[in-house]
Amino acid sequence: MLSFDAEGRLLTWFSPPFAPGTLYKRALDSRLLGRRQHGGQRRRWQANEAEQERVFAALLGAAAQAQADLASPLLDRVLAWTPARLRAEQERFAAAYAPVSILPPDQYFAVVVQATRGCSWNRCTFCTFYRDRPFSVQTPSDFAAHLRAVADLLGEGARLRRSLFLADGNALMLSNGKLLPLIAQARAAFPGREVHGFLDVFTGSRKSVADWQELREAGVRRVYLGLETGHDPLLAWLDKPGSAAQATTLIHDLKAAGLNVAPIFMTGVGGQTYAAAHLADTRRLLERLPLGVGDLVYLSPFVPHGDYAARARDSGVLPLTPAEREAQAEALRGFLRAHKPGVQAARYDIEEFMY
């Protein structure tokens, strides 16, 4: 089973003849992510150059074989994408984007526009997504050039992408005076799409309900908040600013402004030391949040990155087993089913992200 965008570029290939049961996903820069079940576990990998070459060559052969039977003008577009041309998308991607480090799973097929670069905090011990770049805000002229480059890269493939994601990390923290013109530019370049973006609790708390209402009127629909945990001592141990009380106030304000929210919690973070308090206080926080239909709660299996491992070792914090981590996630899913009907809980696996 193969899928392509309207330009004819590969999106996914499930169970190719040379790798039954494998799913390949191609990123916009033509990196390939492979995935299959092995021994009851999901195995993932990024294809090396040799594997990528084999997949792209086999893809061209499969398209040619199908075209012999179908004589489809749509397959003519697919056949135009030789392996060399697909690989060259890496350069076109680099001309349009700084690295797109992470997105929420429901926004993997958004049009990503980088109003900011990097993260305004960028000091959480567990996160390395933006360590390779300082935080900066695009000027209107630079942003306009970026939008043109993105439109050129996506081409007809943009038709598949029904929303706008305002990147990078925490772009929604900008003052409305800076943010509103950038949103207007993005929506003019990619009309008919609602806007989504990340926000942290510390900077998001500076805006009023009226500020958020203004952003909703400008097209913002859902705000994604990396809350991580409802346990304040664990937040402090992770060097993550904010608190459960601040998160509660901010989400009440966002909901009062008519926005949907998607709080993100990490299951397994803090290991054995913090497990009981992390689960108990996260439940208490969820109970206080005014979540309803249209809101999401993401549960992200914790993957240690950055300075976390050294801090855990120095503090004697032992990791949860995969089974313990999954039990923590199921406890939170069960709590949401019982106490927040209509709110969808979803898995957020950062190891499966590709844009």
UniProtKB/TrEMBL annotation:
PROSITE patterns the UniProt entry points to: RADICAL_SAM
Pfam families: Radical_SAM
Molecular-function annotations in GO: catalytic activity; iron-sulfur cluster binding; metal ion binding
Reported cofactor(s): [4Fe-4S] cluster
Superkingdom, natural source: Bacteria
Keywords: Iron, Iron-sulfur, Metal-binding, S-adenosyl-L-methionine
Domain Radical SAM core: 105-340
PANTHER family for the chain: ANAEROBIC MAGNESIUM-PROTOPORPHYRIN IX MONOMETHYL ESTER CYCLASE-RELATED, RADICAL SAM SUPERFAMILY PROTEIN
Protein name per UniProt: Radical SAM protein
